[in-house]
Fold this sequence. Notes:
The protein is an alpha+beta fold.
Amino acid sequence: MVKQQFKAESKRLLDMMINSIYSHREIFLRELISNASDAIDKIYYKALTDDTLHFDKDSYYIKVVADKENKLLKISDTGIGMTKEELENNLGVIAKSGSLAFKNETELKDGHDIIGQFGVGFYSAFMVADVVTVISKALGSDDAYKWESEGADGYTIVPCEKDSVGTEIILKIKENTEDESYDEYLEEYRLKAIIKKYSDFIRYPIKMDITGRKLKEGSEDEFEEYQEEQIVNSMVPIWRKNKSELTSEDYENFYAEKHYGFDKPIKHIHISVDGAVRYNAILFIPEKIPFDYYTKEYEKGLELYSNGVLIMSKCSDLLPDYFSFVKGMVDSEDLSLNISREILQQDRQLKLIAKNIKTKITSQLQSLLKDDRDKYKQFYESFGRQLKYGVYSDFGSNKEALQDLLMFYSSKEKKMITLDEYVSRMPEEQKYIYYASGETYERIEKSPQTELVLEKGYEILYFIDDIDEFAIKMIMTYKDKEFKSVSSGDLGIETEENQNNTDAEEKENKALFDHMKKILSDKVKDVRISKRLKNHPVCLSTDGEVTIEMEKILKSMPNNQNIKAEKVLEININHEVFESLKDAFEKDKEKLNLYTSLLYNQALLIEGLPIDDPVEFTNDICKIMV
């Protein structure tokens, strides 16, 4: 028996593949089962054109048997088998795939496809085995042959006995090391778990002898173990069934079986596309936010299958970040994969699938918002923040797709509304979409800055998420209406008559306001008459793009850039406090200093900003009380 050598390039590829191509050793079982499925497929396709062959699907299967005592794992199939020449050509030259050649020679028109196309999957067995033995008998042949190899040193092929057509692959499992337990690949539960994970939807039965327990005959409390051959894979994936056959319960069961979450999905999306790229997908919008959603540990992505075989557990390229909450899977026969089938090539097909999925999720969320407001509200409470991040990120490039999905609390409705609903009921003379930011809805309602806008009967959107104002700044306008903070300098409400009155009063009290501004020095940009206050004596407003709420959020970030809002202290000249200011300006400058400091600190407290010197503030209050 002469040992034959792998070709030089094959030896290098074998060494590289065993040590680096596959990221998980358990992949070997997926590869061998996929090859076994291909072997059965080949008989099926031959039967389509050969009248002497009858293909009875129930007669074909794959069997996995573990022999723990002898450290042997056997994967057998009832497929087409291999001749001596095919063993030589397919297993003696690494990366020459018999499946790929067969696919190229055969037109596949019925939705079946050959899984293995790269010819290296078989050699993943060497990641867990010292010796790999292949016993095969080809369809239509009376002879069987045994191919055997201990790795890169070469292989032998000799005649042997085999009763039935098909192939057996026998792995002599490696001894355990300090870093690796190879014995796990002989454990029944582990093998079953790997099959369920990667090969659950192989279309032929995968059988194993499963251990069970039963009462001993004649005993009430003594049990004995027994073994029973069972099919461990589901075979027909839910996504290949007609939607009309499936119920909501079927989708919920699939969601639970795949461990996508412990909740029930709010909505499922079943996609079947047979166009430029063929694929099936089932997507779920969860009900509840995962506990680790906003941590570094959370990993977005969909399960990716190629013809029913799991290729990636988390394919992040299929989802944009703002839809990272979506769970589910995609199955396609058209993807270009690398030789290990673990890593996707960045090709046109993948990008097209991702684009279609993004569009589909967007349209389904819009439908949910329109047709089932309560469910959408439930979804938005969990993931609305992520949609806002999507608007803000990438310099606003996704705002057109997402802005109609956003909701904010309304001062008029006392509930969440959309931007479209706000604009649709704006009075004709209203120039802006008004919003107010704060820590809670209750605090915003008491804010002095809202007085004038509410008095005019205009609706205000309340922002309490730290991302809200940043997202709105990125949208800039909605349906030609600009967003305006109620704290901004110009609210666009003043009439020409009111403006003239304010200008006259500003001129009359210019010396007082200049003196107050000097007292506050670099704390405020300006002190001016308020056009918005009705009942409150004082408030802070801002000039420029950065609002006070934005300043607070930026300050709380680890990489604080010390960005500050340009604050303006506004005085209500119709409040009795103003008379005290004027009197102090004329008679007692020291008292004016005290009043100015108190009013500024009062304005800070209203905004939820820290007072520079709390001790000085309390002393100032005491001075007034004396």
